[in-house]
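Objective 1.3, modelling of assemblies. Example input:
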Amino acid sequence: MENSVIKVKNLQKSYKNFELSIPELSIPKGFATALIGENGAGKTTLLNILSGIRLDYKGEVEYFEKYTSDEVEKKPEIKERIGYTGTDNYYLPTWTVKQVNDLSKLLFEKYDEEKFMNYCRDLAVFGEGSVDGNKKVNELSDGTKTKLMLSGVLSRDTDLLIMDEPASPLDPLMRDKLCELIREYLSADEGRSVFFSTHNISDMEGVTDYAIIMEHGRIVEQGFVEDLKEKYIAVKGEPGDIEAAKKILYSMTASNYGFEGICLAEDLDKLAGMDVVTETAGLFKISVAVMKHNSLIR
Amino acid sequence: MKISQNNGIPIYKQIADAFRTDILAGKYAQGEYLPSIRELAKDLRISVITTMKAYEQLELEGLVTASQGKGFYVNAQDSEMLKEQHLRKVEESLSAAIEAAKIAGIGRTELVETLNTLLDMEDMH
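Predicted structure (tokens):
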């Protein structure tokens, strides 16, 4: 891989029944990277470490090919370059929107108040267009809270956006808008990168360049989506071939009418003689196959 | 440019095809830059890596050249190479026709006759 925005080495974080262990990870610079995995796979733990929320871990994290996490903690100008949105309350529940704006102005040098108001208006944070500065954060729905966080983080001039499940609380229309916002963010400057976790793989596929799939604290697959699509091939076939195909396919589901599943490209030849159709798999299918392959759920 | 999400052809191929057609048709001047990768991704509502792969495909075919930090510009299309490209397309289409004829049990003479008839019809227009 060429340039990376975050590089991780020998990262380790243990809980009672869970261990995050990442020998090596590099998040490509200039792209949108999706972090995919089951509940409890360790996505939020990883994001919290990378965004500086958790500092109690072992290992090395390097930002912008230059700074260690210690340096990031000590130098606010590097933190200025990183934006974050999470699933918990990022803003205190009792804050009003006006206070969110005032505090953002205070905290961040490169914060554009006008942009914030425009985003709030464009994303209809307050319904009918007017910005109600006295509305409190805890009076907003989960989706609207996420819109408010997005408005806040996009109003800063950053080089890296880290987002924990930004799509989950959003409606379909707003998810589409989220993809557009990410594309706009990336196209504004070539050096910008986005790293987000998601369960809404299909909704976010159109904006996903690189995918990292996690299972029980480990990275089980990663790569540029276009490359993954050449590695994992979707296959459908007839009932008569189910038993034979089961031995070859990476993952499959069978019914009375036949089977479908994912075949590794290198194993495609072994399906010769069977009546199968192959097609390009979407990222959702690929992710589910990889997760199933590595999951504790059977 | 029309991009279909589910017609079985990978999206990067569809984009490369569209640009190839335009470049071979002379819609881009020699040295002219293609839209930037990130702009195109934004406009087509697809991921950056997909547009990147499309441009790399065109580069591989010798149609464009990557210029560090500036993007992809269209190469001089010498007439020999253009002809070669077009000839390849013709061969592809004819091979598909031969394949279809085999399935339908249509013999060599009949196939050639069909081609001649079509050519005659084309001439009449």
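Chain A touches chain B at residues 30-32, 179-180, 183-184, 186-187, 190, 205-210, 224-226, 229, 279-280 (CB under 8 Å).
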